[in-house]
Specification:
This protein is α+β, with helices and mostly antiparallel strands and about 350 residues long. It has 8 helices and 20 strands. It has 2 domains: about 110 residues, no CATH class; about 230 residues, no CATH class. The radius of gyration is 23 Å and the shape is globular.
Length: about 350
């Protein structure tokens, strides 16, 4: 057993001995624990409950992680990993006043947080985006909706089926070249990294993201997925509460608000022809959400270098009995157009 966890148990036992039959102390403990469940779905849910010195040694079972998390008086820790701290203030910048309880008492409007603190403006076009802090990362809480242009012409991004209303709902779908800013409109990070190019990329790639933000790497996506738990319940915490087919709407307990924007296979598109089917190649709206990842499966295989790329995929499908669904980080061809979520530098 880990020594730090032993010390937590020891503190808890000593506290109980010290309290004895003191009814006042017992009542205080019970009042602090009011509203604290015995189990939660994911670490994200647990982060809303304040862990202070009066809860030191108390444990709550986290179903997605299949393990207890223990309060050490300052933060929640996995019982087998005391460095994996979760603080209630890490989610959305929540204050003590916004911690979940069982109380139905109305919130004082004067105490509600200023929404503007959780938004930012893209200086390029004036669009305002929500943002959310999940664990140690700050993510956009909406898909990017910037019309990427090269030499004054729109390039490599689409509204689903070319309907402007779809961009308002889902943001734009970007080709790999546009997502990487291969024309170096904003930075040299992804210059020349188009569909068929063998790319040598820096650790951080701004891509099409606003200034101060960047296209997330596979490691950054994995950090997010690990935090919420790589399970059906964990991924539901990232999904919006409406819009998904098959009744597979999410809980959105993280505030990430992922919507099923679908994708486009540009191999089947020919927008330049006046006789082209303008909906060609679009698919998956309400069924899937797919996002570009800046890092890729680069090795000595030239085909992999020039065509395959990492993606993050989420679906409305049920997980099977073995706890598997086609969700998480995988491989894709660069010819597709996917959504972009940026993460803060």
């Amino acid at each position: 057993m880990n020594l730090v966890y032993k010390s937590l148990i020891g503190v808890s036992i000593l506290s109980l001995i010290a309290c004895g039959d003191d009814s006042a102390s017992s009542a205080s403990k019970d009042s602090v624990k009011k509203g604290l469940p015995s189990e939660v779905s994911s670490p994200v849910d647990l982060a809303y409950y304040e862990c202070d010195e009066e809860l030191e040694g108390v444990s709550v079972y986290v179903k997605s992680a299949e393990i207890d998390y223990v309060c050490n008086g300052d933060g929640w820790f996995r019982a087998d990993d005391p460095v994996s701290e979760i603080r209630y203030s890490e989610i959305n910048g929540n204050s003590k006043d916004s911690v979940k309880t069982d109380s139905t008492e109305a919130t004082d409007p004067e105490e509600e947080p200023d929404v503007s603190e959780n938004t930012f403006t893209d200086a390029r076009d004036g669009q305002v985006y929500k943002m959310v802090k999940i664990g140690s990362q700050v993510w956009m809480a909406q898909n990017l909706n910037y019309d990427y242009q090269v030499d004054g012409e729109s390039y490599g991004s689409y509204c689903y089926t070319h309907m402007v209303s779809m961009c308002s709902t889902y943001g734009r779908l970007y080709t790999w070249a546009a997502a990487m800013d291969s024309a170096a409109v904003f930075s040299e990070d992804g210059k020349g990294c188009g569909n068929d190019a063998a790319c040598s990329l820096p650790e951080r790639v701004r891509g099409v993201c606003p200034e101060g933000w960047h296209l997330p790497s596979a490691l950054e996506w994995d950090t997010l997925l690990t935090f919420v738990g790589k399970t059906a319940e964990g991924y539901l915490a990232l999904k919006s509460t409406s819009g998904w087919s098959n009744g597979r709407n999410g809980t959105d307990s993280t505030g990430f608000s992922m919507k099923p924007a679908g994708y486009r296979d540009t191999q089947n598109a020919n927008d330049s022809s006046p006789f082209a089917n303008k909906t060609a190649g679009f698919a998956g709206e309400k069924d899937v959400a797919r996002f570009w990842v800046s890092s890729g499966p680069y090795d000595d295989n030239e085909i992999a270098k020039s065509d395959l790329q990492f993606e993050v995929n989420f679906t409305s499908e049920e997980w099977d009995d073995d706890g598997f669904a086609d969700e998480g980080i995988g491989f894709t061809a660069r010819r597709f157009a996917y959504s972009v979520r940026c993460v803060k530098d």
